[in-house]
Design goal:
It is a single chain. With about 240 residues, the protein is of the alpha+beta class. It has helices at about 20-25, 40-55, 75-85, 130-150, 175-190, 195-205, 205-215, 215-235; strands at about 25, 35-40, 60-65, 70, 90-100, 105-110, 115-125. The longest helix has 20 residues, at about 130-150. The protein is rod-shaped, with a radius of gyration of 31 Å.
Length: about 240
């Protein structure tokens, strides 16, 4: 199949776990027709199986700073898959395309006997500027190679899939959190040594007082009375007045 022919095979899947998926791509489901084959399958199949056996683990070495996660970039996917294919007489051709709406990457595995298998992955870039289209093409190339070779990136910790993961901690009780914040404000008001210190503490507690006004007005009344009492105490004491 030449690069100018219209590919008949399609691949569609949800790839939201990828660290850059949210930035530039949306997988578009295609029809469920099989891969396009040309030539004698027997020599191709023998070489492909040998290549799969020799394929190295795809390492996650690139870092996504936004999510603080690691992922396998295009160079790492190519390094883990293409040499094994080449060593067994299979070359890889990836042809990008863009019709103004969808990015496509047609991936061809061609055997030295002339046999080949072709698949296409299409996706919608989140941005249609050159950078957005280029990023979607790179993303599609990575996942097309992973899908067509049967490779997969290793877990971040090497054995994450087989290890027990502790359940996430329960969310904080908002009532307890509000009470803790209120206790902290009471302590800070009592600890203020000067009238200036007291006003700074009271100003920082404005958001808490607003929350208490909605959820615990009785507690707010107690704290307000404490503030007023401390203010009177500090402003009438010549040693604690503001300078």
């Amino acid at each position: 199949m030449s690069a100018n022919q219209s590919p008949t095979a399609g691949t569609g899947a949800s790839l939201t776990s990828a660290p850059d998926a949210a930035h530039h791509s949306e997988i578009t489901p295609m029809n469920n027709t099989p891969l396009t084959w040309e030539g004698d399958r027997a020599p191709f199949a023998k070489a492909f199986i040998a290549a799969q056996k020799a394929t190295e683990a795809v390492k996650k070495a690139a870092t996504n700073p936004a999510f603080k996660t690691k992922y396998a970039d295009l160079s790492e996917v190519v390094e883990a898959t293409v040499p094994a294919l080449n060593a067994n007489g299979i070359g890889v051709i990836q042809v990008p395309g863009y019709d103004g709406e969808l990015v496509s990457v047609t991936t061809v595995f061609v055997h030295e006997s002339g046999a080949s298998v072709t698949g296409v992955l299409r996706m919608r870039p989140s941005k249609t500027d050159p950078q957005g289209v280029g990023s979607a093409i790179t993303y599609a190339r990575r996942y097309a190679l992973l899908a067509m070779t049967g490779a997969a990136p290793e877990d971040d910790d090497g054995n994450a899939a087989s290890q027990h993961r502790a359940p996430p901690p329960p969310p904080a009780d908002p009532v307890t959190t509000l009470a803790n914040r209120a206790d902290g404000l009471v302590g800070a008001l009592n600890a203020a040594a000067t009238a200036d210190d007291l006003e700074k503490v009271w100003g920082k507690g404005a958001k808490l007082c607003a929350d208490l006004d909605l959820k615990d007005p009785d507690k707010l009344a107690v704290i307000t009375a404490l503030y007023e009492a401390r203010r009177d105490e500090l402003t009438t004491n010549p040693f604690t007045k503001a300078a």
